[in-house]
Amino acid sequence: MDKDAAARIQSAADRRPESDAAQEHFDRRAQSAADRNDNERQDDQGQDDDS
């Protein structure tokens, strides 16, 4: 999950707040996953720089 995909999911949830995905807060989970993945990518890049 990347930040662009999470933004698309959040936008869709905003457009249709009555949808199952919006009701189950999938947009929040998607954003959280994107944040975690972004942090992991940054950590990986930082490790490569130290070598």
Secondary-structure topology with pairs:
Blueprint: H1 3-15, H2 20-23, H3 26-50
Helix pairs in contact: 1-3
Measured distance between first and last alpha carbons: 27 Å
Using only CA atoms, what is the Rg?
A: 14 Å
- Residue stretches low in confidence (pLDDT < 50, at least 5 long) are none
- Going by helix content, strand content and strand pairing, the class is mainly alpha
Mean of residue pLDDT values: 90
User: Helix coverage percent of residues?
Assistant: over 70%
> How would you sum up the global shape?
elongated
Give me the strand/helix succession. HHH
- Kindly report the oligomeric state of this protein: single chain
Number of strands: 0
